[in-house]
Structure to design on (332 residues):
C-alpha cells in the first residue's frame, strides 16, 4: 500500500455578475485603460453588489456548485477550511457561516488568513488532515470580497482587486497523485508594506480611523512588487529543484494572479513557455485567496490525469509558497 496522499477530486468557482472595467475605474480616479494594462495586465474585475453580502456568500456559491458537481452530500464532509482576508466578521469564522449556509452539519470548520497565499496554506492544512487517515472528504475554499476593503479614490490600489471564490474537494488516495510536496515561507517584517491599518485589536475602529480611511488596503507598490517577483519565482524554482523536476516535466504553472509582470517573471524563472502558464488576471484582477482555484477551474478541461502542476503565491504578511501537485483525474 502506497503513502496516503490528498488529491483534488473536484473544483468549482464563482464570480459575481457585475463587471467593473478600466473605463469605469478611469472615471473614478486619474488613470486609464492603457496605464492599468501596462502596469498590471487587468482589463476588468467582478464586484459583489448587494446589501449585507460578504465573503461567505461568495464561498456558499462555490461550495454548492462543488457539491453538486461531485455528487457529494453536505453530510459527507468532514472538514471545511476557508482561506480569506476579508471575513464576514471578526468571529464567528466565515467557514462556519458557509457550512451553515450549505447544510454541512457533520464537520468542523475554521478560517485561515495568510493573505494572497491563504489558499495554498489552507490546501496543505487540509491535506495534512487527509493524510492522518481519519478524514475522507475535506473542502478548501478561497473567498474574498476585496471590494469591501478597497478605496475607490486611491488610484494606486483600486484598479487591482476583485471579488471571487473557488473551492476544491480533497479526498485520500494511495496512488501517485495529489499534493506531493510544498514549501511555505513568511517574513513578518513585510507587514508594514502591505496591510489594513485599523480594525484589529491593536487599533480598533473609531471615528478617527474611519475618517483617516484606515480600513482600506495600504500598499507600498514598488516594495511589494520587488519582494513578490523575487520570492514567488524563487520558491517555484526551489520546489522544482527539490523534486528533481525539469521545465519539460511541468504541465502548468498556476500562479497567484496579482500582477502580469510577476506572473511572467515566475514562468521565466522556471524555464516555462507562456503557453504553460495559467493566466486570467485580465478578467478578474487580484481576487486574493480565490485566484489559484479560479484559474484551475477555468483551465480544468485542459487538465489530464497525472499532469504536474506547480502552484505559487505571494501575499501580505509577507507570505509566500509553492505546492507540487499531480492532477488526479481526467476532466470531462
Amino acid at each position: 500500500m502506497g503513502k496516503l496522499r490528498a488529491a483534488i477530486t473536484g473544483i468549482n468557482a464563482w464570480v459575481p455578475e457585475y463587471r467593473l472595467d478600466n473605463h469605469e475605474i478611469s472615471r473614478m480616479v486619474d488613470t486609464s485603460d492603457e496605464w492599468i494594462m501596462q502596469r498590471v495586465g487587468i482589463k476588468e474585475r467582478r464586484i459583489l453588489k448587494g446589501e449585507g453580502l460578504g465573503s461567505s456568500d461568495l464561498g456558499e456559491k462555490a461550495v454548492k456548485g462543488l457539491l453538486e458537481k461531485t455528487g457529494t452530500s453536505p453530510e459527507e464532509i468532514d472538514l471545511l477550511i476557508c482561506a480569506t482576508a476579508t471575513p464576514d466578521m471578526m468571529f464567528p469564522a466565515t467557514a462556519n457561516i458557509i457550512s451553515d449556509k450549505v447544510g454541512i452539519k457533520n464537520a468542523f470548520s475554521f478560517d485561515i488568513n495568510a493573505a494572497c497565499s491563504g489558499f495554498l496554506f489552507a490546501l496543505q492544512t487540509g491535506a495534512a488532515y487527509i493524510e492522518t487517515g481519519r478524514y475522507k472528504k475535506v473542502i478548501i475554499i478561497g473567498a474574498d470580497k476585496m471590494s469591501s476593503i478597497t478605496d475607490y479614490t486611491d488610484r494606486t490600489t483600486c484598479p487591482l482587486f476583485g471579488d471571487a471564490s473557488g473551492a476544491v474537494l480533497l479526498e485520500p488516495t494511495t496512488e501517485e497523485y495529489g499534493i506531493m510536496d510544498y514549501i511555505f515561507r513568511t517574513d513578518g517584517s513585510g507587514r508594514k508594506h502591505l496591510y489594513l491599518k485599523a480594525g484589529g485589536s491593536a487599533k480598533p475602529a473609531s471615528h478617527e480611523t474611519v475618517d483617516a480611511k484606515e480600513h482600506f488596503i495600504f500598499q507600498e507598490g514598488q516594495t511589494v512588487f520587488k519582494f513578490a517577483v523575487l520570492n514567488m519565482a524563487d520558491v517555484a524554482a526551489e520546489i522544482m529543484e527539490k523534486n528533481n523536476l525539469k521545465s519539460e516535466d511541468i504541465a502548468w504553472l498556476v500562479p497567484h494572479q496579482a500582477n502580469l509582470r510577476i506572473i511572467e517573471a515566475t514562468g521565466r524563472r522556471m524555464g516555462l513557455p507562456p503557453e504553460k502558464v495559467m493566466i486570467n488576471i485580465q478578467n478578474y484582477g487580484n481576487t486574493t485567496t480565490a485566484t489559484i482555484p479560479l484559474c484551475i477551474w477555468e483551465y480544468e478541461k485542459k487538465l489530464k490525469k497525472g499532469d504536474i502542476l506547480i502552484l505559487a503565491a505571494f501575499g501580505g504578511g509577507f507570505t509566500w509558497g509553492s505546492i507540487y501537485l499531480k492532477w488526479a483525474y481526467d476532466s470531462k
Q: What stands out?
A: The CA atoms of residues 59 and 325 lie 23 Å apart. The chain has ten helices and 13 strands. The first strand starts at residue 5 and ends at 14. Residues 180-326 form a domain with the Peroxisomal Thiolase; Chain A, domain 1 fold (CATH 3.40.47.10).
